[in-house]
Amino acid sequence: MSKAQTISTTASDPTVAAAAAQFLSPVVLGLQALTVNGKQAHWHVRGANFIGVHELLDTVVAHAGDFADTAAERIVALGLPIDARLSTVADKVAASSVPAGFTQSTELIRNIVADIDAILVDTKAAIDGLDEIDLTSQDVAIEIMRGLEKDRWFLVAHVAE
Ligand SMILES: [Fe+2]
User: Fold this and answer.
1) Distance in Å, CA 9 to ligand 1 centroid
2) pLDDT tier for residue 158 given thresholds of 50, 70 and 90
3) Distance (Å) from CA 142 to ligand 1 centroid
4) 45: CA distance to ligand 1 center in Å?
5) Which of 7, 15, 44, 117 has a CA positioned 20 to 30 A from the CA of residue 33?
6) Band of the pLDDT at 151, cuts 50, 70, 90?
7) Where are the chain's structural domains?
8) How far apart are alpha carbons 48 and 106 in whole angstroms?
9) Distance between Cα 39 and ligand 1 center (Å)
């Protein structure tokens, strides 16, 4: 006969969960903003290398969504919620460098790279901040930094001299 067992919601220590939420939440919000603003750029790019930039921006958007999902689910796996509602994203993430309207590809690439660089600042802060607290959450931030830096390279290669 089996006895009912009480299982804890997560395997984590509350301090670890709080630190993961503190450092990964800004990364999630920035990435969610990138999925929206990257689509804006995808739709309005004009000029040189149109098709390549148009398609690359969709790849950047897809990666941003995947990265956001990985970081958000790390927080939730540790037992805490994340507020990534669109109103919260709009409130907490700095305005995008992507302008409204049709924009030349070279300018738009610089704008998206500026948005990525803002996320990289938060990602680096997460890597540093989680170093002594939770290596598993830090690994999530490292994976995101590696991926964002690769996408940044693919974008910058279009405009680098
Ligand atoms: Fe599309």
Assistant:
1) 40
2) very high
3) 29
4) 11
5) 15
6) very high
7) 14-156
8) 8
9) 8
Q: Return the closest-CA partner of residue 116 out of 156, 86, 87.
A: 156
pTM of the model: 0.93
Evaluate whether the domain defined by 14-156 bears CATH number 3.40.50.2000: no
Query: How far apart are the CA of 92 and the centre of ligand 1, in A?
Result: 27
Ligand 1 centroid to residue 139 C-alpha, Å: 31
DSSP state of 104: E
CA of 58 to the centre of ligand 1 (A): 7
At 8, is the pLDDT very low, low, confident or very high (cuts 50, 70, 90)? confident
- Could you tell me if 37 and 112 are in contact, meaning their C-beta atoms sit under 8 angstroms apart? yes
Average pLDDT, the chain: 95
The residue among 66, 150, 69 whose CA lies nearest residue 113 is 150
What distance in angstroms lies between residue 78's CA and the mean position of ligand 1's atoms?
Answer: 35
* pLDDT number for residue 2: 59
State the maximum Cα–Cα separation within the chain, in Å, rounded to a whole number.
73
